[in-house]
Design brief:
Number of strands: 5
Distance between the termini: 13 Å
Number of helices: 5
Strand order of the largest sheet: 2-1-3-4-5
Shape: globular
Largest sheet: 5 strands, parallel
Order of helices and strands: EHEHEHEHEH
């Protein structure tokens, strides 16, 4: 099955690097730079295997975005991997508490990321 991943990051360079890496491994990628845009994309197409959600974004951060995703019935089951430069144990817990399925710290370890995506339901 071709896995489709939505990358949400306010830094286009992060999106670019992740997109190249994941596409080379056979994933279909969509991306956006704002959390609200991500929610709109998911509402139109809930067939994503995973959302890579940057937690630190202007306007709406990843925590709020995940809470909205989890409380929107049509998209509440979409797996979300929190991606953050905050790497303290309490940050990981904060991401999981917000509703993330998994947590990856920046700089992203690609093997760790692929592993996390493959383990998603």
């Amino acid at each position: 099955m071709n896995k489709k991943i939505l990358i949400v990051d306010d830094d286009p360079r992060n999106i670019f690097a992740l997109k190249l890496t994941l596409k080379s491994r056979g994933y279909q990628i969509e991306s956006c730079t704002m959390a609200q845009e991500a929610i709109n994309i998911l509402k139109k197409d809930n067939q994503f295997s995973a959302v890579l959600m940057d937690m630190m974004m202007p306007e709406m951060d990843g925590y709020e975005a995940i809470r909205i995703i989890r409380s929107t019935p049509a998209i509440s089951k979409v797996p979300v991997i929190a991606v953050t430069a905050q790497a303290m144990p309490e940050d990981r817990q904060k991401c999981i508490d917000a509703g993330a399925n998994h947590y990856i710290s920046k700089p992203i370890d690609v093997d760790q990321l692929i592993n996390a995506i493959e383990k998603l339901p």
